[in-house]
Design a protein that fits this description.
This protein is an alpha/beta fold. It is built from 20 helices and 13 strands. Strand 9, helix 12 and strand 10 form a beta-alpha-beta unit. The chain has a six-stranded mixed β-sheet, with helices on both faces. A five-stranded parallel β-sheet has the order 8-5-6-7-13, with helices on both faces. Strands 1-2 form a two-stranded antiparallel sheet.
């Protein structure tokens, strides 16, 4: 399996090279040159497979030239050490909980998979130190910090927008120390992401260090997210209904990974991208014009992205044909007021506590099911509601207990450095 740049102006690379480079020299995202098929028999018998067997079958075609089977199995065993329960809420709606990992966010799987891949490649080649540069709008930072903590030969630098992540999210990415550094940026997530992309293409930095990214632009962070959808399909298969996934979407990596699972043969009727007021993709689906705009801060901050990187991958999956995309994919945006009301409605009717992102996913699903009531809908709960404590508690008038994963960071001191602009980032990287 080779990976090509979606800008079409860079050489083909291996999985290992794509992971280490992060982004292609022509500024394009790496994408598989082919989409392997898992086959009808795999999906007919998926209920007999455990998570590691499903994951091995799905990931092996992408990585087999660079990760021996035993290494891949060992990595997956370490990555998939928690559950991904499908929680029925009504007769035709369920929540897929992706927050039972160490940082209580869906990004734990991709972050740990990438960290273990980089660790393996570093050991094999006795390579020099790699600096992982990552922008976060919330949960990515904590997941990457946890996944890479203590990995030999790897330094991690996390950029996050000051005042625009929750208190718990900030603690998770600023309190670990060791090989993790947090840089607080006066700006938005888009500003942070722009600085990261600029750094990858800076000749001075490329000459002095090996940079890579742990955002979903990196194939090792992005591709493992397809596993969630396969696990959910296994659980829902016995219902014998047409499945619909509604995915809270910010940088659009998670829903893109779900579409990869579909392209590999997973039976699914439709995908709904549910966003907050940062509605670049819903507007594109309505008008056919891609017009990114500056991001706006919301209570579902992980989706505060004005120019989602992974949408170009989604369009590639459908050969940049909007008519083909519209058959399998739709997108809707919702306000903070609608999100809070959804949190109330879900809790009032089912007793289930949703976080703001899951609530947006629920709204997208409800909108789709209005026109397709015969289908079974699954919305993704991408983070534990306790990570958005103030919003959830004030909306519902209840007090949430702190899980052990959160308790362990609450007493730690924040360690971060303020920077302003790209030149400050470059100077920091060259100095450190």
């Amino acid at each position: 399996m080779k990976f090509h740049s979606l800008n079409q102006q860079a050489p083909l690379v291996s999985f290992r090279e794509a992971v280490i480079k992060g982004i292609a020299p022509d500024k394009g995202l790496y994408f598989p040159t082919e989409m392997p098929a898992l086959g009808t028999l795999f999906f007919e018998g998926i209920h007999e497979l455990d998570m590691e067997e499903i994951a091995f079958a799905a990931m092996r075609p992408f990585v087999k030239e660079d990760l021996p089977d035993k290494v891949l199995k060992d990595i997956l065993k370490k990555v998939l050490d928690f559950d991904f329960p499908l929680v029925p809420l009504t007769e035709n709606i369920a929540a897929l909980e992706l927050f039972h990992g160490p940082t209580m966010a869906f990004k734990d799987v991709g972050a740990r998979f990438m960290a273990l891949c980089l660790g393996y490649f570093s050991q094999q080649e006795a390579a020099g130190e790699v600096t992982v540069l990552v922008a976060t709008s919330g949960d990515t930072g904590g997941a990457v910090a946890n996944g890479f903590l203590g990995v030999a030969g790897v330094k991690v630098v996390i950029l996050y927008p000051s005042g625009k992540v929750s208190d718990i999210q900030e603690r998770q990415l600023t309190t670990l120390g060791r090989n993790i550094t947090a840089l607080e940026v006066d700006g938005t997530f888009d500003d942070c992401q722009r600085m990261v992309k600029t750094a990858f293409l800076d000749a001075d930095l490329k000459e002095n260090m090996q940079l890579t990214s742990a955002n979903s632009i990196n194939v090792a962070r992005w591709l493992p997210q397809s596993l969630y959808f396969l696990f959910a399909y296994k659980e829902a298969k016995a219902l014998d209904k047409n499945l619909v996934f509604s995915v809270p979407s910010g940088n659009f990596g998670n829903i893109c990974a779900g579409l990869v699972a579909q392209k590999m043969g997973m039976p699914v009727a439709h995908f709904v991208a549910a966003t907050n007021c940062n509605d670049t993709v819903p507007r594109f689906m309505a008008t056919g014009q891609y017009a990114p705009k500056p991001s706006t801060a919301t209570i579902s901050n992980a989706m505060d992205v004005g120019d989602p990187s992974n949408f170009v991958r989604i369009r590639q999956l459908f050969q940049n044909r909007n008519d083909r995309l519209a058959k399998d994919f739709s997108a809707h945006s919702f306000t903070d007021q609608e999100t809070k009301q959804a949190i109330k409605d879900i809790y009032g009717s089912t007793g289930y506590v949703a976080d703001p992102h899951g609530a947006v996913g629920y709204l997208g699903l409800k909108k789709y099911l209005e026109a397709h009531p015969d289908r079974y809908g699954i919305f993704l709960e991408t983070a534990h509601p306790v990570k958005f404590l103030d919003t959830v508690e004030s909306t519902l008038g209840i007090q949430l207990p702190l899980p052990p994963q959160i308790q362990k960071v609450m007493g730690k001191d924040k360690q971060s450095l303020h920077i302003e602009g790209y030149q400050a980032l470059k100077a920091f990287l060259l100095e450190h």
